Amino acid sequence: xxxxxxxxxxxxxxxxxxxxxxxxxxxxxxxxxxxxxxxxxxxxxxxxxxxxxxxxxxxxxxxxxxxxxxxxxxxxxxxxxxxxxxxxxxxxxxxxxxxxxxxxxxxxxxxxxxxxxxxxxxxxxxxxxxxxxxxxxxxxxxxxxxxxxxxxxxxxxxxxxxxxxxxxxxxxxxxxxxxxxxxxxxxxxxxxxxxxxxxxxxxxxxxxxxxxxx
Length: 214
Ligand SMILES: [Zn+2]
Known about the structure:
Elements: E1 8-13, H1 24-37, E2 41-44, E3 51-54, H2 58-61, E4 62-64, E5 88-99, H3 125-134, E6 143-145, E7 152-154, E8 166-174, E9 181-183, H4 185-195, E10 199-204
Antiparallel strand pairs: 1-8, 1-10, 2-3, 3-5, 4-9, 5-8, 6-7
Helix pairs in contact: 1-4
The structure holds zinc ion (ZN).
Zinc ion binds at residues 114, 116-117, 119, 146, 148-149, 151.
């Protein structure tokens, strides 16, 4: 599927709360059932892996700012994967906590914030890249030292300013521009209740880089 550079709103299990290992399949199923029950999604789209058309409940749970949303909710009869100009949802999961964009930080515009001191972990983008390069931890539990408060913090626990996230379950909604739409509190609560873990969301154009479990 050619999804590169399509704007999207992505929901992610909240990374500061480590989800229980080995439960991603089970929890992802529960999340899918809840999305169907809320009619946020409908049946799977034939020819698009892990993807679903959006249902009647979508515009009740996701609120678009400004005037009427310019999104196409109708799934076409035949799918041209080079021309995905309608909105749909894709559900992805990995067994272990993973960064949605891997360690490719080229899509980031802003330096992430430290959740300890609430300030940027580095004064500018280059200083942040330098911090990453100075880190010697393994990829799965990489830590950096926040330049503002001098505390060692896990990358997974940084506040990425709604640009990316670490998680093990992701719900992507295609064709939502950055900050064009936000979920209701009730929707995020539904996700938390069904998965027993908190969720967050972010906006991106870039495809996920992690290895999706089979
Ligand atoms: Zn700090």
